[in-house]
Amino acid sequence: MAQRLGIAAALLGDPEVLLFDEPVNGLDPEGIRWIRTLMKSFAAEGRIVFVSSHLISEMALTADRLIVIGAGRLLADTTVAELSARSVSLEDAFLELTAGSAGHHAAARDRPGSGPPGSGQRPPAPNGPAATRHPSYPTERTS
Fold first, then answer.
1. Of 34, 40, 70, which Cα lies nearest the Cα of 54?
2. pTM recorded for the entire structure
């Protein structure tokens, strides 16, 4: 119910571009069908509908085009049919396409201080360029 209410609130302004992040998460089968129909109807009206999802099977049922991003890079901008044709299934094609970008997950997971919440590990103290103040945001007045 909360998912539907959030979507309804976002639609009050009658937007031309819609961005959904994991829209079927937590929905029952009726809600999933409702959101699929809603997204397809908006696309049929000529609106731009972006959907971010980890559910490959859901994308196969919902999307016309796929943009696949891995490790911060564009890996594919293609149709569902074109990506599916690369392997035995859309899921296999996706996994083959993203296999080279999976290493960044392990590297991030193994960094010191990146343990799960409650593990007692704390992130390392900031140092270097990431810790310096941005020059556009002075910390004291100079007038």
1. 70
2. 0.62
